[in-house]
Write a structure and sequence with these properties.
Layout lengths: L11 H14 L2 H26 L4 H23 E4 L2 E4 L5 H5 L1 H53 L5 E4 L3 E2 L7 H15 L6 E2 L2 H4 L9 H8 L3 E10 L2 E10 L5 E10 L3 H15 L20 H14 L4 H17 L4 H18 L2 H21 L4 H13 L4 H14 L4 H13 L3 H14 L4 H13 L3 H14 L6 H12 L2 H10 L5 H10 L5 H15 L4 H10 L3 H13 L21 H10 L18
Parallel strand pairs: 3-5, 3-6, 4-6
Antiparallel strand pairs: 1-2, 6-7, 7-8
């Protein structure tokens, strides 16, 4: 038993309670609150008044750091000293009774008043910063942005226009292809007007249903005017509402509504083109605006089949290309003289065979492509699209890149403002090793189609072939901003890293490449400059076993990097014999070009119909012949 008279040790909870009571008795919590409020209020004051007196931004940061450092010293001071009517005294010099009585109460009330006052000041400063100064700053920033936008828009050529995709207001959402087709054809029509800068479809279509202001859209596209509107198709009637506005303020320049029979849709397109020219005071110089994709019979149903087939084919899958081919055949049943549809059928057949078929099935697709191309040439020998499609056949299945470039240049001469013809010229130049001319053409395309990601990708390859690594990386990163999942962009960055010898960055970028063709190759490429040679060898063997048969050029590329020219040339021969589509980039490939002075390289170029690197061709960057 415990003797009730025997003293007992105080419990831990009692000691803790006693310590807290002592803190309260010495007003330490109040002192802490006062200190924190004072630091906060002073920091708010520095933030609000600092800019007015020219204080740098770091003053507030370092004041807060000093406040944190000083906190324990102030708490020690509050523990040791007491405010009394006689001044500041050590706690040991004051009477406990006074503390517990009137003197302690007076001190506590004084501290409470100080705390309340400091917090009121801090709150006032905070509200001033949040609702007055910040609002003024935001208003000033918005005004500055608006002024900057106005200044930049004023620099744009007045005779420039972007056609935003016309909205589909019909009852069937599946008719979107029709309104998009009209928008695309309107762009094509407007490029025929001399002196008018027309933004390409790829860039302008990025602003479908955009919430951006006209000024923001105009500045992004480089166009002083925007064309927008809607299409509504009901039975055999069509209504097209279209207007042109100024990008600077969204004010209307011209607007009109067309409501006609569906068969008159082609006349409506031409009328809109003429109206735009009149509104911008541009003379047509007596040249009529001709719709290049119009069926000669005027059969609107055939036109609709063509538009639908073109839209479906652009998805790029095997099933979509086959579906597009069927739709082109339906259009040609209704109008066998439809040259433009024959050209689309030729292109689709080439792509089907090149991308998805092998052996006899591929050759059969190429035969069909040649038949369709010959038919297009017979029906429209002088059309720009005919020369473009003829060049594509020569480049892909006839192994004639020089002849292909000549056809692309003829198309460009007939349609000098169309980005499609310029793109083929640039690609033809690139495939023939005319890299600087190709780069200049790609930059020309971006002047009127500034958001077109595939052009940035192609431009990067041209720069990479010239070993302009910094420029290639910069262009590729611009493309990634536009479309992070575009195939091959991270593979291009991997090539840049490998050429720099940066194994870590190469592995990081290769891991981000999600495309099923480019991804495995990029990761294999990155492994080749790592420290583990056994792993690199094994990865190459595994890649050859899984993908070497279908992608021999990529295997050749790896052997080029590994400095094994005999194996490289062997796999390049296989790629050339198999008509591997990646082989067309031979003269832009920095790894293979390291062996351009090898006699075997000259023999390969001769076999493939390619000039030797550095050989000047009788062409210029604008697509004309010198």
């Amino acid at each position: 038993m415990t003797d009730p008279d025997e003293p007992t040790e105080p419990s831990e909870s009692a000691e803790e309670h006693g310590f807290i009571a002592e803190l309260q008795r010495r007003n330490v919590p109040r002192a802490a609150l006062l200190y924190g409020g004072a630091i906060w209020a002073t920091a708010q004051g520095i933030t609000v008044l600092g800019p007015a007196v020219g204080l740098p931004d770091w003053v507030t940061r370092w004041f807060l750091v000093a406040g944190v450092i000083g906190f324990p010293f102030f708490m020690t001071f509050a523990w040791l000293f007491e405010f009394t009517p006689g001044g500041l005294k050590l706690e040991s010099e004051t009477e406990v009774g006074h503390r517990r009585g009137g003197l302690g109460h007076i001190t506590e009330r004084k501290l409470d008043y100080w705390i309340i006052g400091v917090l009121v000041v801090a709150v006032v400063l905070l509200l001033t910063n949040q609702f007055v100064l910040r609002r003024d700053a935001n208003s000033a920033a918005a005004a500055a942005d608006a002024q900057t936008l106005t200044v930049e828009l004023a620099k744009l050529p007045s005779k420039s226009v972007a056609v935003l995709p016309l909205a589909n207001e019909g009852d069937d959402p599946k008719q979107q292809y029709f309104s998009d087709g009209l928008s695309e054809e309107l762009i094509s029509d407007l490029t025929q007007i001399d002196g008018l800068k027309v933004i390409g479809k790829y860039s302008s279509f990025k602003f479908r249903d955009s919430k951006a202001t006209p000024g923001q859209i105009g500045l992004a596209l480089g166009a002083a005017h925007l064309i927008l509107g809607s299409v509504r198709q009901q039975g055999d009637r069509i209504r097209v509402m279209v207007s042109m506005i100024r990008a600077t303020d969204g004010s209307s320049v011209w607007s009109h509504s067309y409501e006609e029979q569906l068969k008159d849709v082609f006349a409506i397109q031409s009328q809109i083109g003429r109206a735009v020219a009149d509104a911008l005071k541009i003379k047509l110089l007596g040249k009529p605006i001709v719709s290049g994709d119009k069926p000669p019979s005027g059969n609107v149903e055939a036109y609709q089949f063509m538009l639908q087939g073109r839209t479906v084919t652009r998805r790029g899958t095997e099933s979509s290309i086959r579906q597009g081919i069927d739709l082109f055949h339906q259009a040609l049943k209704l109008d066998p003289a439809y040259a433009y549809a024959w050209g689309l059928l030729s292109n689709a057949s080439v792509n089907l065979g090149m991308l998805f078929l092998t052996g006899e099935a591929r050759q059969q697709a190429y035969v069909q492509a040649r038949v369709a191309g010959n038919r297009e040439q017979l029906l429209a020998p002088d059309a720009a699209h005919t020369h473009t499609d003829r060049g594509y056949l020569l480049a892909t299945i006839d192994n004639d890149p020089v002849g292909a470039l000549a056809e692309y240049q003829r198309a460009h001469a007939l349609a000098p403002n169309e980005t499609n013809s310029m793109n083929f010229v640039a690609g033809g130049l690139e495939n023939l090793g005319q890299l600087q001319a190709a780069v200049e053409m790609y930059r020309k395309i971006l002047a009127t189609d500034p958001l077109r990601v595939d052009i940035y990708s192609n431009l990067a390859l041209g720069l990479l072939g010239q070993r302009e690594l910094d420029a290639a990386e910069q262009v590729t990163r611009k493309a990634l901003v536009l479309q992070p999942d575009f195939p091959g962009l991270y593979a291009t960055l991997t090539e840049v890293d490998v050429l720099r010898g940066d194994a870590g960055a190469a592995r990081e970028n290769a891991a981000k490449e999600a495309d099923p063709t480019w991804g495995p190759w990029a990761r294999l490429l990155a492994q080749q400059i790592g420290p583990d040679r056994h792993q690199a060898d094994g990865a190459l063997r595994d890649y050859i076993a899984k993908q070497g048969k279908d992608l021999p050029y990529f295997v050749a590329d790896i052997y080029a990097l590994r400095k094994q020219p005999a194996a490289m040339f062997d796999w390049l021969q296989r790629a050339q014999r198999q008509n591997d589509p990646i082989f067309s980039g031979l003269l832009t490939d920095p790894f293979v070009l390291a062996y351009q002075h090898d006699p075997r390289f000259a023999a390969l170029c001769k076999q493939a119909g390619l000039p030797l690197p550095g050989t000047a061709l009788a062409v210029d960057g604008s697509g004309g012949r010198q």
